[in-house]
Structure formats: C-alpha cells, structure tokens
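User: I'm designing a mutation panel for Aldehyde dehydrogenase and want to avoid disrupting the core. Could you give me a predicted structure to guide residue selection? Please restate the sequence first so the numbering is unambiguous.

Assistant: Good idea. Sequence first, for numbering, then the predicted structure tokens:
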Amino acid sequence: MSDYQVNNPATGEVEATYPTATEQDIQRVIEQADTAYQDWRTVSLSERSKLLHKIADLYLERKEELARIVATEMGKPVAQAKGEIGLVADIFRYYADNAEQLLAPNKIDVDTGSASVEKLPVGVLLGIMPWNYPHYQVARFAAPNFMAGNTLILKHAPQCPKTAEVIVDIFKDAGLPEGVYNNVFATNEQAATIIEDSRVQGISLTGSERAGQAVAKVAGGALKKVVLELGGSDAFIVAADADIGKAVQGAISGRFGNTGQACNAAKRLIVIESVYDDFVKGFTDAVRDMSLADPLDDGTFIGPMSSKAAATNLQEQLDSAIQAGATVLVEGGMVKDKPGAWFKPAVLTDVDESMDVYRQELFGPVAVIYKARDVDHAIQIANDVPFGLGASIQTQDAELATQIADKLEVGMVTINAPSGSEANTPFGGVKRSGFGRELGTLGITEFLNYKLIRDKS
C-alpha cells in the first residue's frame, strides 16, 4: 500500500490513495529536471518574474479551494490555511520583485583591472517538505530558486498528496516550463537515490531531527550541500514589565496556532516570578475556554492534530511528564470517544531538568510554563535545550529586549509578538534546529554558484 494518502484527521477516514513512484519515475523526474535546467538557466529574470507574479495571482484566486484541501489533509483550521495561502503569494511576489537586485554581481575593489562575483544557479535541487505548512514550505524553497535559475524535484509529505498535485497544477497553469518543477511521490529510499545522483546539486529539507540526520548523512557522503530546517522548542519570555493581557494573547496564538504544530511555536512560556501568577491565570483561563471544532468551519481556532500517530506520540510525552512529577494546570489529551486525531489542549508547570520532556519538542497543543527568578534565569532556561530556532520576548523596555535578544542562542527573535514568518525576513536556526536560511535576502543565496570573474588586463 502506498504511504501517500489523504487520511482526514477530523474523521479518521482514508479519502484517497496515491501510488508511490516507480524506479522509472525517479529516473524520469531527474532527467526532466536536468534537461529543463539547460534552458531555464538562460531565461531572463524579467520573464521569471512575470511567471512568479502569475503564480501568486493563481494562489489567491484559488485560496478557498486550496485551504479546504489543507484542512482535509492535515486538519489545519481553514481560516489559518487561507492565511498560509496569502503568505505564499507574498513570497512569490517578494522574489519576483527583488531577485534582480539580490542576484546582481558584487563588484570588488582591486589594485589592477576589475573583479566581480557573479551569482549563478547550480542546477537541479531536491526539496523534502513536511505536512504542517504544505504550501508555505514549498513556496519558500521554490520561489527563490525559480528566480535563481535552478530546477526542482519535490518530495512532499505523504499526508499531503492532493496539495502536492494542486501545486503542480498552479505552476503549470502559470506557464512554468515543463521540468522546472517536478513532484514525485517517492519513498525515503528513493529520496536517497535522488540525493546520490550526480545531476542533483543540493537538498533542502524541512522536518524532524531524525529526517535531517538521515538526509544529511546521505548528502554528506555524496558531497552535496544541504539546508536543514528542523525542530524547535522556542521560548516565550514574559518580563516583569510586560503587558500581561497582550502577553497572554500572544502566547495563546503562538502556542496553539496550527493546533500547536509549528517548529517555531511558543512551546516554553518562561515568566518572571513577579508577574507569574497573573500570567498563569490569564493563560489557563483562555485555554479552558478553547473548544475543538471542525477545521472546515471558518470560526475554528483549534482543530484535530495532523494524524492519530502524532496525537499518540504527544500523549506519550504528556503522560511521561505527569508521571515524572509535572503539575497539570489544564487537563488535556487525546479524545478517545471520537474518531480522528483530536487532542484537547493541556498546560503543564513544574517541569524540571530531570524530566525527558524538559529538552524535548512538544509538537502539538501542550504548553509548558516555567517560573524564572529574574531575566538572567529566564535566559538560562531559554538556552538550556538542544534547539535554537526562535524566541519571543514580551517587554515594554526596548533596551532590555535588545539585551535579552543578544543572549539567546537562536536564529530568530521576535519582540512583543509571537514568532512568525514574513517573505522579506530570513527564517532558520542554530544548534539542532538545523542550518541555512530561507526567505528574505538570505533565502536566495543558499543554492548559488558564486563565480569570481577577475580581469587583470
């Protein structure tokens, strides 16, 4: 049986199944991408830009349809899925409008003659993408590399085959030449075959630590560059002078958006003890008021998790924390009397270094609140995890915010708002959250050949 299927997490029903690629399919897509690269690299930036603007237009025109597919495949509330589609359009427009400047040669001052660094495409790239933001993750890989002149092979998450298909349709309808973008329903073993092929020049993966380790091992053996965007356990620090009402609102959005299934979600809420009680009351009251609802309803904030397996794994982590001594402030967990992957939001405190969950990523609607003695203690807690993706700081003191931000071991810091993503700002982390950057000015630089042209005449 194929791994690629639409298994509706709201109902538990398998609604469609897609065949896994054959070995002939794998060789065909590599050949298509390599052949298309020879022509695509010569297409002018202005022509590429027009295509990307058309892609953005089509995303917005089809937003309702695309959002409902996402809700059915992985449970994202449809209103949030529409927001994802809007961000996708922004990403394509950003690179369409800015690539010419970003790809302009860099002139170097030299004693004699001239020197410049040209920014050129490298060739065929493989993208391995997750289910939690099935359009956005593809866009932030595809948009800059289309403009750079690279061609792409895309292995989407097995949970999102319908989304994978409609992305192909959008690119085709926009006029993207055949072979520039190639979807393939590949197995993990087939992905390794693609990585090892000499025609493939780089790999971008967004996913779990385990997936990152596996891909990096194969890519390293094949001497291929990799960009990895992996897990996170982002800190949400609430300083003593924070506006508690806004901090609670930001924490709810940051922790439970996309049903808590985001790498940069506010997974650890670290609160200075002088405002701890007020924050905890406001936060737990808001969580208790949440209700699980149909992801296809425009008013839904919390839907099902992406799959029964994901919900079961989170339940095991929650049970482990409670058995180890964590205090339950809001009782939650899997909903046993309902089909699908429903999980009531939970809130824990008194999680300490002796517990496995202290340094694990909780990928779902479970929040952990920590009490910090002071700012230095908050920073210590924030940095005491193997991840380093992002963090958020709630304070009305701009100088304090800067001081905290400088000491956090992460790739991104957001002040007075939950962590998010914008087309023109770089996204990525350090430590076990991976390496490389996507989006913004840095997102187009990862897969380029920086060629020095030195004229000494």
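For picking mutation sites, this is relevant: The two ends are 65 Å apart (CA to CA). The chain has two domains: 4-230+432-455, 234-422.
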